Amino acid sequence: MIFFDIDGTLLDHHKRLPGSAKAAIQTLQRLGHEVALATGRSPFMLQQVADELGIDSYVGFNGQYVVMKGKLIYAKPFQDEELDELSRFAADRGHPLVHLNEESMRSSMIHHPYVEQCISSLEYPPPECDPDYFRGRSIYQTMLFCEEVEEQPYRDQFAGLRFVRWHPYSLDVLPGGGSKANGIAQLIRSMGFEPEEVYAFGDNLNDLEMLQYVGHGVAMGNAPDSVKEIARHVTTDVDQHGIVHGLRMVGLLP
């Protein structure tokens, strides 16, 4: 079974799916391999890529939401009180939050340049404002918008949550214990695979646990050194046919 991250792995630096990557995945599927996505994106943000590639199994929200063959098999949302405390803490510091569920996302502030820059980098319009969006809903991931020098108080205050930086101006906030590795473990257990039979491709800090957990972790050439160092294999940059090169390197493509 092969898992692919989306941004910076399947999608290139311009958020396009290279033709070579699409053809490679179609070949894997014809050969009888199981192919899935493992991403920080919400289901509504990954569906276009999944549909284009004919993929119906995925790990979303960095492991908090797992779908097998189109059916939800695992979900781990925040507790309401966790987000209530986080919201007050961030508001006191003037830092916006964006709360996400499987259908949509909402911002705690009407306008903020960090939110607009980060969300537009995913090729989505800025979310509408609803500071109380998390109340009474299952929220699987929250984005915190602040610079790196401002993040340590959050880590100190919320030791039970997980913070993973994905942009100079933003971190993903996950329920405690959340990771792509945990989501993959849920999915492969249901599908009858052992970790040693699993491959994964990733390019960023939220891929660290995933690349360590599977039997064959492949870091993209555009990944930070900390990601490359823990991966079993390192392929070329996403813009240099990194998917095809990596699949050939590990023997999954001729």
UniProtKB/TrEMBL annotation:
<dbReference type="InterPro" id="IPR006379">
    <property type="entry name" value="HAD-SF_hydro_IIB"/>
</dbReference>
<dbReference type="GO" id="GO:0016791">
    <property type="term" value="F:phosphatase activity"/>
</dbReference>
<dbReference type="GO" id="GO:0000287">
    <property type="term" value="F:magnesium ion binding"/>
</dbReference>
<dbReference type="InterPro" id="IPR023214">
    <property type="entry name" value="HAD_sf"/>
</dbReference>
<dbReference type="GO" id="GO:0005829">
    <property type="term" value="C:cytosol"/>
</dbReference>
<dbReference type="Pfam" id="PF08282">
    <property type="entry name" value="Hydrolase_3"/>
</dbReference>
<protein>
    <submittedName>
        <fullName>Cof-type HAD-IIB family hydrolase</fullName>
    </submittedName>
</protein>
<dbReference type="InterPro" id="IPR036412">
    <property type="entry name" value="HAD-like_sf"/>
</dbReference>
<keyword id="KW-0378">Hydrolase</keyword>
<dbReference type="InterPro" id="IPR000150">
    <property type="entry name" value="Cof"/>
</dbReference>
